[in-house]
Amino acid sequence: MPAQGSCTVIVGCQWGDEGKGKIVDVLAEGVDIVARYQGGANAGHTVHVGDSQFVLHQIPSGILHAGKRCLLGNGVVLDIRQFFEEYDALVARGIDIEGRVGVSLRAQLLMPYHRMLDKAAEDSASTKIGTTGRGIGPAYEDKAGRRGVRVADLANPQRLEKLIEAAKEKVCDRLDQLGAGATSELDAAMDEALALGDRLLVLATDTGPEISAALRDGKRVLLEGAQGTALDLDHGTYPFVTSSNTTAGGAATGTGIGPTLIDAVVGVVKAYTTRVGEGPLPSAFEPEMDEHVRALGGEFGATTGRPRRCGWFDSVLSRHAAQVNGLTGLAVTKLDVLDTLSELQIVTAYRMPDGSVTHSFPADTWSLAGVEPVFETLPGWESPTGHVRHLKDLPANARVYLDRLEELTGADVQWISVGTKRSQIIPVD
Ligand code: IMP
Ligand code: MG
C-alpha cells in the first residue's frame, strides 16, 4: 500500500470570524500544504505570532509557518493587485515565501471593475447585503455567467484582451444603469492589475492534481474555508450571504480533489456568536450586552473595521453546520472572552412567528428575522482561562458549558482556544 496522507477541512460554523485563521495557524504546524478553496479578499484572518499581528485576506494562514506550501484553489476569486500587496507585505516582514505560494490556473480573476460594481450595486440596492465591498458577488456572477477571466487566460494576451474588452463594455453599461457613472479610474486600475499577470503566472499550478499527488505521497493537507456556514450561498441566510460555497462540500469543488480524499472536517465556532453585515442574527444580545461583549472580544471586522453584532451561542445554527458540513470535530474559540460573565445563555430552539417551536435552521431567511430564541441558562465560571492548557484545568462551569455546546451541536470538541497567542490552545484528547 502506498503511504496515505490526510486531508482535513477547516470550516466556519457561524457567520465568519470564528477564528479559523488562528486554528489553521495552530494546525498548520503538523501539515505540508494549506489551501484556500473559496472567497477572496473579503476574508480577514487574524493571526498572532509572538508580539506580531498578521491579517491575511487571500494567502492561507499556513504561510506563517516556515516551509509549508500554501495554495489558492480554483474556487477562489483572486484580486491580483491585493494579492501581491499581501505577498510583498509578508516578504517585507521577513516571511520567507519564495516558492511556497501556488495559485490555481483555474481560479477566477477578480478585476477592479468587480469592486466598482459591488459598491455601485450596494449603494443602489433596496435590500442591502452589507458586503465587504471587495467585488466578490460580481466576480462570482461573471464566473457563473461564463464570462469570467481565469488565471490561465493570462498566458494568452490576445484572448485576455478580448475577454477584458467584452467585460469592460458590459461593466460600463451596468455602472451607468446603477447611476455610478464615472469609470475614469478603471483603465488605470486595469493596467495596474494586468501588469502583474506575468508575476502571477510564475505561481500558477493546478491545485487538484497537486493536492491529490501530495496525498498519495503521504503528505498532510488542510483545506482552509473562509467566511462561515451561515454565509454559504446555498445553506446560509440567503440573500444575506457571500457568493460562494463556504461549507465543506466547497472544499472539494474549490480545490479540484475528490470528496473521498477528505478525512476530517473540523468546524470552528466562537463560544458566542457574531455577525458583520446585514441579515438576521436570532441570538443577538440586548444593546448593552452587545457593546460589552464587542469590547471584551474586540469584535470589529478585520477587513472593513465594521463593528460586529454579537449574541449568545446558537445551537440551532451549530447543529445545521454539523449536518451541512458533516463535522467530525469542533474547535471552540474565544472561550476566554466569556470569563467575566456571571451567567450564559445558549439558544436551543426558535419560536417561529406562528408560535411553533423548531430545532432546525429554517430555510426561509425572512421567517428567521422574526423568530424568538428559546434559551437555556448556564452559570458563568467568573475566572480567567487564558493560561489554561489542559481540559482538566478549566473551571468546572466552563467545562459544563463546553459539554453542552458539544451535546447540542452533535460534534466532539477537539480544540479550545483561550486567547490570541499560538500557545493559548487546549487540545482535547
Ligand atoms: P461579500 O462576501 O463581500 O459579498 O459580503 C457578503 C456578506 O458576507 C456580508 O454580510 C459580509 O459582511 C459577509 N462577509 C464576507 N466575508 C466575511 C468574512 O470574512 N467574515 C465575516 N463576514 C464576512
Ligand atoms: Mg474574519
Notes on the protein architecture:
A ten-stranded mixed sheet has the order 9-7-5-2-10-1-11-15-19-20, with helices on both faces. It folds into three domains: 6-105 and 202-266, Adenylosuccinate Synthetase, Chain A, domain 1, CATH 3.40.440; 108-198, Adenylosuccinate Synthetase, subunit A, domain 2, CATH 1.10.300; 269-427, Adenylosuccinate Synthetase, Chain A, domain 3, CATH 3.90.170. α3 packs across α4 (136-144) and α3 runs parallel beside α5. The protein contains 13 helices and 20 strands. The protein has 429 residues and is of the alpha/beta class. β16 and β17 form a beta hairpin. It is globular. Residues 15-17, 42-44, 129-132, 134, 136-137, 226-227, 231, 240, 242-243, 276-278 line the site of inosinic acid (IMP).
Features:
429 residues; alpha/beta; Adenylosuccinate Synthetase, Chain A, domain 1; Adenylosuccinate Synthetase, subunit A, domain 2; Adenylosuccinate Synthetase, Chain A, domain 3; 3 domains; 10-stranded mixed beta sheet; 13 helices; 21% strand; globular; binds inosinic acid; binds magnesium ion
